[in-house]
């Protein structure tokens, strides 16, 4: 059977399996599957069954991630990881994360069934991370941080909406909460990490393309911005006002303008004003700010421009403005070698020149990249919609994706990659 024919058949099965996993939900009439939940245990059972049917060994690691391992040409070789996450946001779609795991399963099973794993100079590990979205405990990437060595025991004290601590949730899941840190993998046991994921944006649709690689997962910083003025009666003439809210409005417009000019992404999603009277000039306004950019320098440049403009606006409007950083993460750059293998796969399956996109959403790869070189394969999703029951993918796109993903594995093997070589490529990059 040709690679194309396999992928066409595999796509139907992949979509059917995404439907099956969507049934394992804690939300009536919708999809929600949380870390360390009974529904996650069911999802692991189902997914492990698909792997085990092809003779691929599975286990659940100390952090509650599902692992399937297919040996290469000899047992015990370092592994290439194919992974994504099996948890979801509340009222989720069927594909964010799930599609990547199910496609990784399809590739591993195909390798096992054709015996081509025995040609590989590395093992394959399928990873279904238990937490990426952070829906249950309000901290994200828990499964992948544990894998990559970034686990922090203080997270165990977090509680879910029902007051269940993470510590208790681990015990209920049959795991020892004091051993989560032991899920951290060793660098020498792995080659790298590949993730297949829906784009969660509209660019592939706009370009009429099924697939792309990812150049980097965006740098992100979040702030709380506070504008201090003075509250007074609506009767106050304009030249005597210290209106915090109109100043905030002007700053927010400037943020939009600057971010568009720089080709980055910014959002102000929350705002409040005090004292909050219809006939009272606002004395204080507070708003959130999230800025994402393909690299750290660009993100920093955008902030420099924003704060400079905010100061100008504040001076002119006789208010003061300050900001507090609440989160910052550097961009994670995809490994050039692994990315070139993904792009080789895209060119073979789609028959068109491959290109890369910046990923503005976060992904497991951010946490895995603390340990391993990573690369990602994006597939078009309808309208760029995600984190919604309206998530949708096309079967022909999934077929292109499955073929490209498998081809990337062969390409890595063909270039006779080994741990030292990836480390060397890492250092060069
Ligand atoms: Zn995801």
Automatic annotation (TrEMBL):
Q: Where does allantoate bind?
A: 222, 279, 292
Organism, as annotated = Bifidobacterium ruminantium
Residue ranges occupied by any Peptidase M20 dimerisation domain in the UniProt entry: 222-315
Cofactor: how bound: Binds 2 Zn(2+) ions per subunit.
**The name this protein goes by in its record:** Hydantoinase/carbamoylase family amidase
Family assignment from sequence similarity = Belongs to the peptidase M20 family.
Cofactor or coenzyme needed: Zn(2+); Mn(2+)
Residues binding Zn(2+) 1: 85, 96, 197
Q: Span of the secretion signal?
A: none
């Amino acid at each position: 059977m040709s690679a194309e024919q396999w992928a066409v058949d595999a796509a139907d099965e992949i979509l059917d399996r995404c439907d099956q996993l969507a049934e394992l939900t804690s939300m009536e009439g919708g999809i929600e599957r949380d870390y360390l939940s009974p529904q996650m245990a069911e999802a692991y059972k189902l997914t492990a069954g698909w792997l085990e049917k092809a003779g691929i060994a599975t286990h659940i690691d100390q952090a509650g991630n599902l692992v399937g391992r297919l040996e290469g040409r000899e047992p015990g070789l370092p592994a290439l990881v194919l992974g994504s996450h099996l948890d979801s946001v509340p009222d989720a779609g069927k594909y964010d994360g799930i599609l990547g795991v199910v496609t990784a399963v399809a590739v591993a099973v195909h390798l096992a069934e054709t015996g081509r794993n025995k040609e590989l100079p590395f093992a394959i590990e399928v990873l279904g991370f238990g937490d990426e979205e952070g829906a249950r405990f309000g901290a994200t990437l828990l499964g992948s941080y544990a894998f990559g060595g970034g686990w922090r025991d203080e997270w165990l004290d977090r509680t879910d909406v029902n007051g269940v601590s993470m510590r208790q949730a681990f015990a209920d899941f049959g795991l020892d909460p004091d051993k989560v840190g032991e899920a951290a993998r060793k660098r020498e046991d792995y080659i790298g990490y590949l993730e297949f994921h829906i784009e969660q944006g509209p660019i592939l649709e706009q370009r009429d393309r099924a697939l792309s690689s990812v150049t980097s997962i965006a740098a992100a910083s979040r702030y709380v911005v506070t504008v201090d003025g003075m509250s007074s009666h609506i009767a106050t003439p304009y030249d005597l006002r210290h209106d915090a809210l109109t100043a905030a409005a002007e700053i927010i417009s400037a943020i939009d303008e600057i971010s568009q000019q720089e080709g980055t992404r910014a959002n102000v999603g929350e705002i409040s004003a005090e004292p909050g009277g219809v006939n009272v000039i606002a004395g204080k306004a507070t708003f959130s700010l999230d800025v994402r950019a393909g690299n750290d320098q660009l993100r920093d440049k955008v902030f420099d421009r924003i704060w400079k403009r905010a100061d100008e606006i504040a001076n002119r409007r006789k208010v003061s403005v300050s900001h507090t950083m609440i989160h910052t993460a550097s961009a994670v750059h995809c490994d050039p070698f692994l990315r070139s293998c993904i792009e080789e796969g895209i060119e073979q399956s789609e028959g068109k020149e491959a290109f890369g996109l910046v990923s503005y959403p976060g992904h497991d790869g951010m946490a895995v990249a603390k340990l391993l070189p990573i690369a990602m394969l994006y597939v078009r999703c309808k309208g760029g919609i995600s984190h919604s029951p309206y998530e949708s993918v096309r079967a022909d796109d999934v077929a292109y994706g499955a073929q490209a993903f498998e081809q990337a594995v062969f390409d890595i093997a063909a270039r006779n990659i080994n741990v030292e070589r990836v480390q060397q490529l890492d250092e060069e990059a």
